[in-house]
Prior knowledge:
The protein has 327 residues and is mainly α. The protein has one domain: ABC transporter involved in vitamin B12 uptake, BtuC (Orthogonal Bundle), CATH 1.10.3470. The chain has helices at 2-8, 14-25, 27-42, 49-74, 82-98, 104-127, 133-152, 161-164, 175-193, 195-205, 207-212, 217-243, 254-264, 276-295, 300-326; strands spanning 157-158, 169-170, 173-174, 245-246. Strands 1-4 form a two-stranded antiparallel sheet. The chain is globular.
Amino acid sequence: MNKVAEAVAVPKGRGRGSFMTFLSGNGALVGLVVLGLALFIATPDFLTGRNLLNVGIQASVIAVLAFGLTFVIVAAGIDLSVGSVAALSAMGSAWIFSQADLPGWIALIGGLLIGTLSGAVSGLAVSYGRLPSFIATLAMLSVARGLTLVLSGGRPIPTAPEVSFLGSMLGPVPMPIVVLIIAGTVAALILNFTVMGRYMYAVGGNTEAARLSGIPVRRVLITVFALSGLFAALAGLLLSGRLDSAQPQAAVGYELDAIAAVVIGGASLAGGVGRISGTLIGALVLVVIRNGLNLLNVSSFWQQVVIGLVIALAVGVDSLRRKTAQH
């Protein structure tokens, strides 16, 4: 009887180990669920349909920005320019429509191309100019914001109807949420099911080993920054579509939220680790925190403090996870 009991017994610590493994890989999701339950208890307004749609709309811009940034961070880079590139793309699109008097669909495509080109320039500076991504994208942050002010003269510019459509409703569903789902699906397909996606993980894991393996590292770096610029442009168009105008100071500071969303979602700033699904959850965590604090009438000043602490905690967990993996 004792032998039978020993044979079917669960080894000591296995259950706890499985739980810790799940928690390590899905910490952001668990945190989002706990946060949602806490806010549901704290305020009955949180889980209403109207508020949840509002959360989705607010998350759309940050999440789309963060999707593009995920490619860069997986490849062991950083992109500080996504907020400014989003603003430049939206302003460029509005200028093409209202000042150059071109059709709205050209303005929409033009905005996406402006963002992609801006990202590609950063990628060229990193891959061929050998600039650290921090410096290259910091320079692009300033250049893109300056060009946004030059194009606008410091004033808002009306957007094309095709861009405004991105901020409208598609039946009962807001278009920003539809765009979020499509953008997330495309980003996940690129990262998980393409050769370039595998190259991104390889370059982020060990750049020199990837180069010696024949992976075109320079092309990969240009691609990840171009994709980051493309998704930043889409986020900028979403934002201007909601406002029916391109604002010269739009998306200021959004790059910090995007980086935080990627890290909260489980990506490593050291590169080689990251998932689009995790990035989406990270963006939702940030937005749910802000939304919940607003519902609880917490001062916006304290909200900045809370978000800062969450970012610090996420980076600390990433650092601890990497140290644990090394040992």
